[in-house]
């Protein structure tokens, strides 16, 4: 990895890791007879939606899931023909192009279903629709009391020929808390909603499981699973043991200047850190504009020249400073800010723990205008 030139602020995306992760996840799904929808919303959790989508489809994923219509159409524009499901719609979304491109849509209400049906009729096509039941997350999804009317309307729309109901689905609130009573309660609600859909004359599949449920609840795989974060090698349930996932994103930079400073030298804005002895400082040209949170000032380290070394003083917009003691550190040396962790570097999970957030937020926020993203593919697809 380190024999290639290091960009100033570079995200390396290990496509081989994504393939391996999808193989792990889709094998688990297949064991329970389920297909796999790889979730590539938010630009593939910051990894690059098209890159991840292709890698996932090569490695056992059957279809793709995204939040917005734009994200779905981006996959189609890249030439991806696999089924794509898109679930978050605004009231004035134009469904026409999505229906023309065979993007599957979600309906949580009668009004939402009617908008899809009208757009399909205008296109002279059949829209494939997943009906969403709110089983307890209280976000999107149809409340249980309105569900019978929704499935009746969906059955009529199907009979009218412009809608095909392919699934009844929902989303879990606490799947990462093993044994949380809401998990079973939500699954039971989904089953009830599915039975009502069948009673109305529909024949949909069911899907509920996010990554945490793919890894820990095979009984909730139903006909299709929707892993997101685990595709990227980040484990939502590390307390359940090692699931054999490998983080695909490495954030790296390189040393642009080293200097020897005397004891008593204070570093960066506000002089919040002072050298207690003569030491060598390394300047790294990344800062909070590149995704290094300023609140990690004084609380983070990097992997540089064979060791973990502390970042000292404040993280600035464009720069940070690493204390290297008396070790030999050179301009041009690679600096790993986070990665899979197997070379000793920090991980995105470590950043998240330190910040009081989740690794999802770290990787999703990393790709910015000034940051390069390099796809590394050193393994052949199987
Ligand atoms: C983001 C998302 C997923 C994937 O969740 P992970 O926890 O990343 O596996 C699945 N389904 C829906 C509806 C989502 O919004």
Radius of gyration: 24 Å
Shape annotation: elongated
Count of folded domains:
2
In CATH, the architecture of the largest domain is: Alpha-Beta Barrel
Bound molecules: pyridoxal-5'-phosphate
Mean pLDDT: 96
Task: Summarize this entry quickly.
With 382 residues, this protein is an alpha/beta fold. It is built from eleven helices and 19 strands. It has two domains: 32-231, Alanine racemase (TIM Barrel, Alpha-Beta Barrel), CATH 3.20.20.10; 249-376, Lyase, Ornithine Decarboxylase, Chain A, domain 1, CATH 2.40.37.
Q: Can you offer a commentary on this structure?
A:
The protein has 382 residues and is an alpha/beta fold. The chain has two domains: 32-231, TIM Barrel, CATH 3.20.20.10; 249-376, Lyase, Ornithine Decarboxylase, Chain A, domain 1 (Beta Barrel), CATH 2.40.37. It is built from eleven helices and 19 strands. It has helices at 15-31, 41-45, 49-58, 69-77, 96-100, 110-123, 147-160, 181-199, 211-216, 348-355, 359-364, and strands at residues 10-14, 35-39, 63-66, 84-86, 103-107, 127-132, 163-169, 205-207, 224-225, 249-254, 257-261, 266-267, 273-274, 279-284, 301-304, 307-312, 320-323, 334-338, 372-376. Strands 11-14-17-16-15-18-10-1-19 form a nine-stranded mixed sheet. The chain has an eight-stranded parallel sheet with strand order 8-7-6-5-4-3-2-9. A hairpin with a 2-residue loop joins β15 and β16. The longest helix is centred in the middle third of the chain and has 19 residues, at 181-199. The mean pLDDT is 96. The structure holds pyridoxal-5'-phosphate. Pyridoxal-5'-phosphate (PLP) is lined by residues 39, 41, 87, 171, 210-211, 226-230, 236.
């Amino acid at each position: 990895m380190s024999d290639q030139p290091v960009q100033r602020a570079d995200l390396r995306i290990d496509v081989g890791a994504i393939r391996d992760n999808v193989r792990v996840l889709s094998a688990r799904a297949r064991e329970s007879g389920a297909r796999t929808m790889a979730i590539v919303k938010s630009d593939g959790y910051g990894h690059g939606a098209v890159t991840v989508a292709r890698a996932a489809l090569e490695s056992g994923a059957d279809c793709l899931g995204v939040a917005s219509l734009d994200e779905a159409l981006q996959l189609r524009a890249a030439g991806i023909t696999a089924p794509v499901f898109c679930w978050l719609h605004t009231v004035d979304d134009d469904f026409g192009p999505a229906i023309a491109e065979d993007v599957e849509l979600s309906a949580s209400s009668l009004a939402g279903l009617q908008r899809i049906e009208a757009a399909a009729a205008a296109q002279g096509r059949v829209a494939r629709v997943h009906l969403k039941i709110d089983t307890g997350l209280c976000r999107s999804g149809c409340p249980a009391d309105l569900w019978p009317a929704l499935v009746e309307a969906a059955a009529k729309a199907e009979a009218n020929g412009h809608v095909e109901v392919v699934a009844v689905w929902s989303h879990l609130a606490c799947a990462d808390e093993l044994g949380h009573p809401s998990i079973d309660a939500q699954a039971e609600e989904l089953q009830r909603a599915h039975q009502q859909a069948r009673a109305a004359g529909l024949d949909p599949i069911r899907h509920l499981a996010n990554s945490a449920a793919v890894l820990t609840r095979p009984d909730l795989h139903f006909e299709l699973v929707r892993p997101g974060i685990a595709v990227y090698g980040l484990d939502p349930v590390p307390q359940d043991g090692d699931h054999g996932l490998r983080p695909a994103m490495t954030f790296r930079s390189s040393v642009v200047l080293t200097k020897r400073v005397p004891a008593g030298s204070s570093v960066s804005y506000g002089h919040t850190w002072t050298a207690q002895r003569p030491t060598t400082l390394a300047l790294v040209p990344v800062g909070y504009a590149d995704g290094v949170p300023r609140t990690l000032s004084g609380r983070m380290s990097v992997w540089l020249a064979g060791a973990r070394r502390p970042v000292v003083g404040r993280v600035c917009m464009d720069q940070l400073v690493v204390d290297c003691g008396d070790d030999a550190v050179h301009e041009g040396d690679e600096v790993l800010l986070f990665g899979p962790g197997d070379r000793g570097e920090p991980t995105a999970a470590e950043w998240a723990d330190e910040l009081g957030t989740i690794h999802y937020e770290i990787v999703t926020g990393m790709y910015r205008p000034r940051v390069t993203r390099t796809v590394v593919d050193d393994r052949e697809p199987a």
